[in-house]
């Protein structure tokens, strides 16, 4: 979630003055959420593939060392950041919000 929130704030909004507080309860002015949903799903897959726990060892974490390496948090955050910044400009272009 933090990768998505930081992307929206620092890349697309750039300052606190870019937020219109009157829009919070108006569905017509809020973002559709396609980019956020896609990033959330991609981040969850990144976490699952990168985690190394007693109950689950992901495919990517198995490639790190003899016992695997727990990089689920890093993979999830980076994948969410990348997917959000690919899909969000498309959402702005086609939906305008």
Describe what this molecule looks like in 3D.
The chain crosses the membrane at residues 30-52. Pfam families: Transp_cyt_pur. GO terms for molecular function: nucleobase transmembrane transporter activity. The protein is an all-alpha fold and 97 residues long. Helix content is 55%, strand content 0%. Helix 1 packs across helix 3 (72-95) and helix 2 (34-50) packs antiparallel against helix 3. The chain is elongated and about 55 Å long. 23% of the residues are buried.
Query: N- to C-terminal separation?
Result: 20 Å
Total of helices: 3
In terms of DSSP E residues, the strand content is: under 5%
How would you spell out the order of helices and strands? HHH
Q: How would a textbook summarize the main sheet?
A: none
The outline comes out as elongated
Radius of gyration: 17 Å
- How many structurally independent domains? 1
- The total of beta strands comes to 0
Structural class of the helices, strands and pairings? mainly alpha
Average pLDDT? 92
Poorly predicted spans: none
Helix content: 40-55%
């Amino acid at each position: 979630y933090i990768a998505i929130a930081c992307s929206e704030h620092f890349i697309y909004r750039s300052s606190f003055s870019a937020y219109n507080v009157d829009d919070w309860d108006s569905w017509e002015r809020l973002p559709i959420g396609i980019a956020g949903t896609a990033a959330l799903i991609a981040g969850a897959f990144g976490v699952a593939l990168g985690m190394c726990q007693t109950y689950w060892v992901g495919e990517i974490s198995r490639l790190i060392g003899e016992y695997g390496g727990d990089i689920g948090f890093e993979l999830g955050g980076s994948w969410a950041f990348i997917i959000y910044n690919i899909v969000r400009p498309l959402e702005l272009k086609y939906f305008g919000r």
